[in-house]
Design brief:
Shape: globular
Largest sheet: 9 strands, mixed
Structural class: alpha/beta
Strand content: 15-25%
Number of strands: 29
Radius of gyration: 24 Å
Oligomer: single chain
Length: 625
């Protein structure tokens, strides 16, 4: 192990081993691909970088040497397809291993990777391609997304090149077909034996026949108007001439999963990769030697690079990727047991689904650390996980615009429901509407120091904070002003300095003079066995201004009734301040969500404010999936 991360970081710790100071420095030509991945590959080519598998039975163990080789080949292939320095490339690859080849290759070329989810619709694609002048898209053939791209082509004049990746099932294969594949499991190829000799069809092959180095990129994608990625990379040269880069130039861009309006284009430079040292080392506590870290996230989401790429490989750790389609708690437990996963990160909902399965049937003793973020963590789930595994669930907070900024760092004692404390990489405060620091217990906005003067200048932008919203200086100015980056998220801190999340600014409910955050009420309601999902909003009220409303998706076995409504209301009254209880409860089949899975409270509010929705149950088709 080379301790590469120590080249860029300065840290100090308390006597208890808790992080006290944390800063980053890097040269003007820093490149994650060249200075981290290739450096490890040249020194320790056999160091494991990623264990990858899918439900179909395919499995690969990639070394850092493999990642250098295939990213070099991918970079040469993309050069042949016209990708150049500064180009923005839309990448929709689910959890396919080719995503890692592409991410490293685009970084080596100085191009900008724009990850996106496979759940996009035609209008989503049209907006993304046209807003960023996308010329090239690299897309999976699993599911319907390639057809969606084709349908949107006529509305996207800048899109010239479509590159298709054969995803080898990607977890969408039926259970019956998967069982058949497993029954036909094959041994490794004998000397001189070929895949074709076993009846291999490169256009339809799935499963264990593709396991091992001979199966990498062995399949073919055949679709009119598209270039075959796998064939192109296999045929490309391994001799790649490095491109001179500047760390301050754009490296990655995400379309934020805004809960209202069109998504913002969040642009990051190479400092973003380094800033995820805080994510991997100080929050996730990844194990550099002998461990495997598993973050459960699709590559279209920011959490994928939080947990499957930058910080973990800076720590020279091995990551685990499962290319599945539908989440199963039992499957996850089986994988933890089989592959001896040491650290785990996923949202509270997934931990809850794991606990609702046959968790006691599996040996989870390999787990040494577990973290969570993105949703309310209920005290009951915290305790259930601790009782089952002996591990504490440690929370963290960050945004598309940042890496982790508030978290329970290693050796801190987490408080169930608290995000933890600000990571010392940033000067973070909770500010009121006048820009003053809030007192203990007072709700305000989480803000990060960004410049010393009123216009945000006078100091360098903190490492890892976004460069800005691409092509939208007005929205950037709405977020960065007065010397601070304003997150739009509200919280309060306790006497010990722990932060407690309240909600987005737009989600705060002002009722009878009280400021009520939906997060706390949702957390309480989720502890009730009848509630599977919940969104809390404010509805117009002639007396209170706003009344608290809970929109609930019921757990299996429960039915909506007046009796259940009264029970849930009483439940909230006994768990938190009585004025916060939901005076209205609506029961639906599915909450409105963004393509990235975030609840769109704005949709619920808009319908209520328009008078279109009455108190009580409403048809699920009004909300979508």
């Amino acid at each position: 192990m080379r301790d590469i991360h120590k080249r860029y970081t300065r840290e100090t710790y308390s006597e208890e081993g808790i992080l006290e100071t944390f800063s980053l420095e890097y040269p003007e030509d820093f490149s994650f691909s060249y200075d981290v991945v290739d450096d490890i590959a040249q020194a320790e080519p056999d160091r494991p970088a990623m264990v990858w598998c899918n439900p179909e039975g395919e499995e690969h163990i990639f070394t850092f040497g493999d990642m250098k080789r295939y990213s070099d080949k991918t970079a040469n292939f993309l050069l042949e397809q016209g990708v150049r320095y500064g180009d923005l490339v839309l990448v929709i690859l689910r959890r396919h291993y080719q995503f890692w080849f592409v991410a490293l290759a685009l970084d080596k070329l100085g191009a900008v990777i724009v990850p996106a989810t496979f759940m996009l619709k035609e209008h989503d694609l049209e907006y993304r391609v046209n807003s960023a002048d996308i010329k090239t898209i690299i897309c999976t053939n699993v599911g319907e997304i390639a057809q969606t791209v084709d349908n949107a082509m006529s509305l996207c004049p800048t899109l010239k090149t479509r590159i298709l990746v054969e995803g080898c099932g990607g977890g969408v294969t039926s259970e019956e077909d998967i069982e058949a594949l497993h029954r036909l499991a094959v041994a490794p190829l004998a000397l001189g034996e070929t895949l074709e000799g076993r009846g291999f069809d490169p256009c339809t092959a799935l499963g264990s026949v593709l396991s091992g180095p001979y199966g990498l990129l062995a399949t073919r994608a055949n679709r009119a108007g598209w270039v075959d990625f796998n064939l192109g990379v296999l045929e490309a040269s391994e001799d790649f001439k490095p491109v001179e880069k500047k760390a301050a130039d754009p490296m990655i861009m995400y379309f934020s999963s805004g809960t209202s309006g069109n998504p913002k284009m969040v642009l990051h430079d190479s400092g973003y990769a380094l800033a995820h040292l805080g994510t991997a080392k100080h929050w996730q506590n990844v194990k550099s030697d002998g461990g495997i870290h598993f973050t459960i996230a699709d590559t279209g989401w920011g959490k994928a690079v939080w947990g499957k790429l930058y910080g973990q490989w800076l720590m020279e750790a091995c990551v685990f990727t499962y290319d599945f389609n539908r989440f199963s708690g039992d499957e996850i437990c089986e994988l933890i047991q089989k592959y001896q996963i040491s650290t785990l990160c996923c949202p509270p909902t997934m931990f809850r689904l794991i606990m609702q399965g046959n968790v006691d049937d599996y040996d989870l003793s390999s787990l040494e650390y577990s973290v969570t973020a993105g949703e309310a963590l209920n005290p009951d789930l915290f305790e259930m996980w601790r009782e089952r595994t002996g591990l504490l669930l440690t929370e963290g907070f960050g945004q598309t615009e940042t890496p982790v900024t508030v978290c329970n760092t290693v050796n801190m004692v987490p408080k169930p429901g608290s995000m933890g404390k600000p990571i010392p990489l940033y000067h973070t405060r909770i500010l009121d509407e006048e820009g003053r620091e809030c007192a203990v217990g007072q709700t305000g906005e989480i803000c990060i120091r960004c410049g010393l003067t009123g216009d945000g200048s006078g100091a360098e932008r903190p490492v890892g904070l976004m460069m800005g919203y691409y092509r939208n200086p007005a929205r950037t100015a709405e977020a960065i002003y007065g010397g601070w980056y304003h997150t739009g998220d509200t919280a309060w801190r306790d006497e010990g300095g722990y932060y407690w999340y309240v909600g987005r600014n737009d989600d705060i409910i002002k009722s009878s003079g009280y400021r009520i955050g939906p997060f706390e009420i949702e957390s309480v309601m989720l502890e009730h066995p009848a509630v599977r999902e919940c969104a809390v909003t404010g509805v117009p009220d002639p007396v209170r201004g706003k009344a608290v409303k809970a929109t609930v998706v019921l757990a299996p076995g429960y039915e909506a009734s007046d009796e259940l409504t009264r029970e849930l209301q009483a439940w909230v009254k006994t768990q938190t301040a009585p004025y916060k209880y939901p005076r209205i409860i609506a029961y639906i089949d599915a909450l409105p969500k963004t393509v990235n899975g975030k609840v769109r409270r704005a949709v619920i509010r808009a319908e209520d404010e328009s008078g279109a929705a009455a108190a009580g149950a409403r048809p699920p088709e009004e909300f979508g999936g």
